[in-house]
Amino acid sequence: MEVTFYGVRGSIPAPGPETVRYGGNTACVAVRGCGGELLILDMGTGVIGLGRSLLQSEFCRGEGRAAILLSHAHWDHIQGFPFFPPIFVPGNRFTVFGPARSSAMLEGILEGQMNPHFSPLYTMRNLGAVFEFVPVEGEVDDEPLRYGDIHIRCRANPHGNTFCIAYRLEEGDRSLVYAPDVGYPPEGPSAATLALYRGADVLIHDATYTPQDRQRRLSRGYASYADAAEAAVRAGVRRLVLFHFDQDYTDEQVDHIWTQCRELLDRLGGQDIELMAAAEGLQLSV
Ligand SMILES: [Zn+2]
């Protein structure tokens, strides 16, 4: 799998001279399978840049196919959707996975975003592309999902007073976990969540805060870099990518988070875990 980061910021976009290196767009990660499958992890404002690049491909001819995996529907994970150019091209097809009890409920969440109070698009019926909706709940006994040759498993993580889906993508013996927006209880991740992360080649994990800032804002339901490090060590992952930085953190503060996280990983016995901070344009091979 080839992974490209298009948006790495949490809550709201944060453009400006102090965020140019990591980028100011909200959450969006693109994954390409070996068979050419395209999976889009969340549709924050980062998806707009992905959309522009896709218009150089079959998506401009209405022959594009992609899966959209929504972790949850807070604004920073869907706000790029109405501005994603491929949705306006008739013939393109999208399979949307996301937390809901039914496909109608999942469609209704995105349809609500098109309401004329919020958007001039009025309704998803005005979009040219065709959408299929697959609800996921992230329960332990959920059936594994599949998109092309990519196997998808998911787990509901606690996120403030709601929850957020973490996804594990597997292709052959390679694995990538995407776990944004998670506020673990004091004892850390559940056994089910650790099982989802276990041995992943890459774990993209929420690292919204420093531990001090997380303590001040516990009810918001986000992780610190320390939570990410502890989860990575306990799950025995190979590479940890810090993600979903607070909108007020400058590039220098994100640099500092990486340094502090590296020291903590080494102290916790995670010396062999490669550590990266996600940035717009960063590409990884899994
Ligand atoms: Zn978020």
Describe what you observe in this structure.
The protein has 286 residues and is α/β, with parallel strands linked by helices. It has one domain (2-285): Ribonuclease Z/Hydroxyacylglutathione hydrolase-like (Metallo-beta-lactamase, Chain A, 4-Layer Sandwich), CATH 3.60.15. It contains seven helices and 14 strands. It has a seven-stranded mixed sheet with strand order 6-5-4-3-2-1-14. Strands 7-8-9-10-11-12-13 form a seven-stranded mixed sheet. Helix 7 (251-267) links the parallel strand 12 (239-243) and strand 13. Helix 6 (225-235) packs parallel to helix 7 (251-267). The longest helix is centred in the last third of the chain and has 17 residues, at 251-267. The protein is globular. The termini are close together. 48% of the residues are buried. Bound molecules: zinc ion. Zinc ion binds next to helix 2.
Task: Give the CA-CA distance, first to last residue.
Answer: 5 Å
CATH architecture descriptor: 4-Layer Sandwich
CA-based shape: globular
Instruction: Write down the Rg.
Output: 18 Å
User: Portion of residues in helices?
Assistant: 10-25%
Largest sheet: 7 strands, mixed
Which structural class fits the helix and strand makeup? alpha/beta
The count of β-strands is 14
Briefly note the CATH topology name. Answer: Metallo-beta-lactamase, Chain A
Parts with pLDDT < 50 across at least 5 consecutive residues: none
Mean pLDDT: 96
The spatial strand order of the largest sheet comes to 6-5-4-3-2-1-14
Question: How many distinct domains?
Answer: 1
Tally the helices.
7
The ligands bound in this entry are: zinc ion
CATH superfamily: Ribonuclease Z/Hydroxyacylglutathione hydrolase-like
